[in-house]
Amino acid sequence: MTEKLWFLKSCELFRRLEADDLAMLERRCLSRRFARAAPIYMPADEASGVLLMAEGRAKICSYTDEGKQAILAFVEPGEIFGELALLDSGEREEYAEAVEKSNIIFIPQDVIESLAERHAHVSLGITKLIGLRRRRIERRLKSLLFRSNRERLVSLLLELAEQYGQPTPDGVQLAIKLSHQDLASVIGSTRETVTVLLGELQTEEFLTLGRRKITITALDNLASSIKAPVPRLPRRALFPTV
Description:
This protein is an alpha+beta fold. It has helices at 3-10, 19-28, 109-118, 120-146, 149-164, 180-187, 191-203, 219-224, and strands at residues 30-34, 39-41, 49-55, 58-63, 69-75, 80-81, 95-98, 102-108, 165-168, 171-174, 207-210, 213-216. The radius of gyration is 19 Å and the shape is globular.
């Protein structure tokens, strides 16, 4: 089994495909490696397919009118991104950048559309992916409009727990390494503000901080502090992430 085929079979979206479809998928896909901080695609690039993160990590971003970076999503191994090409094969509206050395597989639009037409689970998976990403973006926009910096940060931490939370003896550890600037770029704040707020949450015993590591020690209390439901921890990695 080739490395590319192994990564394709590891993706939730393609796990149930038969050997012939997997072979076709492998033939038509292109694999490319990106250095840390390298652009994967840019605004106005042709949106001619979707991408699978095989190894590494990326972020999906846009820039505000003031030139500030706004992080829309993080992409982890096994996740599909750039999926809006399936709705409109025009131009990309955001940009994607490798956060670390990454191996990414490009899947042409006609290939993914053909699989979706012939396999209900692929079509359903794509629909769920697009819907989940849109709901998370809408939730973030509402948070930016109506919540304080602290409430936005807590809401993001709960969302990350739902996506990346791993139970440990000390609490729920977020299995994603984010800097204070990363968190600030997601919630529309500043690094200094996020640093102060995380310090307050640690003092109030909601969480503990390590080097790019956050462990939520009181998940129920953290959720109730903003009157939010307690997030369900992931059973396994899925394709969407925002």
